[in-house]
Amino acid sequence: MKSGVLILVLLLLSWSTAWAQDPVATVEVQIEGPSEVVGFSGGFERTDLCVGLTSGENRRLLVPFLSRDGLGEQFALARLGASQSAADLRWDQESIESPQPWKDLPRSLRSRGLPSLAAVRPRVGGLRWVWLTVAVLIVLGLRRRPWRALLAGALCGTTLYWLPAAPIAPPVVRLLEGDAASGRWIELRGARDRLELEPVSTGWVRHLPQTADRRLEVHEHSGRARWSILSAGARIYFMREVLAVEAPGPQGPGSHVFEEVWLKESGVGWTARGPWRGQGALPNALPAGVSPPGWLVAGLPQGVPILAGRLADEDGNGAWLRYVGFE
Amino acid sequence: MSSTLGRTAAPSDSLDWRRGLAWILAACFSIAPLVARGEFEAALGDASRSAMFWIPWFLVIGVPRGPQERRVWPLAMGLVLPLFALAFEFDWRADLDPRRMQAIGTAGVLVFLCLGEASFQAGRARWSLYGPIWFLLVFLLPALTTALAWSSGGRLRAEGLASNLASFSPISAMWRDVQPPEGALWREAVESALFCPSTLSCVVLVVLASVMARRGSTT
To answer: How many Cα neighbours within 13 Å face the side chain of A160?
Structure first.
């Protein structure tokens, strides 16, 4: 009996970490005001609807919630006890859409390296160096009175936070993963701390470290809705299957514009090919080309030609493509 | 301050050239990660600059000193705090976990204070054992553990003797906080930064030095 309880407890404890990717299901929700923020436990994590509505207003929203294979429907959208909003919510169980199980995707799409999302490091500006020099001079000027020097140092350290600082753009990565054998593609988007998404279809979400807290938000302003996945201090990745992606071939890059492209052929290894734009054939190998990033070529299958490249991105974010079975 | 050997000597100036040089070097090394660019910056990755900041200062602040020397750690702390604020703000703006950073900051200040005061008290008491203990904690343990990790190809890095030894050294402990294993909870990070054997060993060291100073020991 005791061992049975122990096994059950261990199974329950391991439940939250048993899935590397959690399915994100969607449900259509009709919300009627007044409301500001309404919290729901959709599936097994919290989803907040941040929709400002006055009394009598209403909206119909596509709401994502974290599901699990085959279980999402049972847990869909129970209002959290802490929610004080008077908003009236209605949803139709039949509107719930769950993604297919992650394991049903081709193995070559599932077992690849995730994009690196190194924290963006700020730059120490000139104003801070001037401030630091002044602080050091003040402290050294008080060297005969060390306790006053300590106090001055503490005050100078505190004042640093009032100095203006340039904003930092957080890293956002987009990656298209293709598999020639199955003809299927997934799009991956990644960010740190907070991943913003257009209200899209179902998908899968992964966050690292897995122990970090996580929740979803739906924002709606002037008729435009956005989804956010939040996990403080974590790398967040959202994957969804995309259709109608034009695959690059040896005779042309399709609709893609490559800033840099690499090709791996059997027995040759990775070769840099430089930029690949327009409708021309794949450029020849460059004798002294740059190497592809480590994460881009990690976990890829062996024995098949693979194309990897950095795509042109107007937003200035990282955009990449990997295509297994390029020929 | 009168010496126990019967000589009377005025306390030396708080900033002789050797200490000044050591502090300048420590300041340069501690802020070097903030100005890193290119491959050096990429190699540092997500490492906490505020944890790296303390390592050179731990090396210099506890250096054994003579009985006539004044208490210098308040002045050193006055210099360190604006520099540390820069490193702390750097991590803050890079979105590192603020609770971890606060733990690193608190542990850093505490260890810095303990090593500085222990050095002063041990000098005042002419406690000759302080030198070997300081050398063991600050230099020998990190050097030994690094040598063990290198010679064993990394197998001794995570567990066993090397890890246990390293936990007593403030340098090794702070180095571990530079980049904790992915998935470490903030509570573990706080515990590892504040309640680890290295912080406790520094507290014990300052207490021992103070006791020796009170007794006027010449052990």
So the answer is: 29
B74 touches chain A (CB under 8 A): yes
Place of tokens 């593609």: A185
- The CA distance from B49 to A88, in Å, is 48
Contacts of B10 in chain A (CB under 8 A): none
Going from the C-alpha of A214 to that of each of A11, A231, B184, the distances in angstroms are 21, 5, 16
Set of chain A residues whose Cβ sits within 8 Å of the Cβ of B45: 118-119
Distances (CA, A) of A257 to A4, A250, A281, A282, A326: 58, 14, 13, 12, 16
What pLDDT sits at residue B48? 84
Judge if pTM exceeds 0.80: no
User: Taking CA atoms, what residue in B is nearest to A141?
Assistant: B75
The string of DSSP codes covering A67-99 is --TTTHHHH--EEPTT-----EEEE-GGG-B-P
* Chain B nearest C-alpha distance from A246 (Å): 34
B34 touches chain A (CB under 8 A): yes
Please, is B18 exposed, middle or buried when counting C-beta atoms within 10 Å of its C-beta (0-12, 13-18, 19+)? exposed
Closest CA to A274 of A284, A265, B178: A284
Q: Do A135 and B46 touch (CB under 8 A)?
A: no
Instruction: Determine, for residues B78 and A193 on separate chains, whether the beta-carbon distance falls below 8 Å.
Output: no
Cα–Cα distance measured from residue A144 to residue A26, given in angstroms and rounded to the nearest whole number: 68
Spans of chain A, pLDDT less than 70:
1-20, 40-44, 68-87, 111, 118-120, 316
CB contact A121 to B (< 8 Å)? yes
* Tens-place pLDDT, residues B106-161: 888 988 999 999 999 888 888 888 889 888 888 888 888 777 767 766 555 545 66
Cβ neighbours of residue B8 closer than 8 Å, sequence gap 6 or more: B2
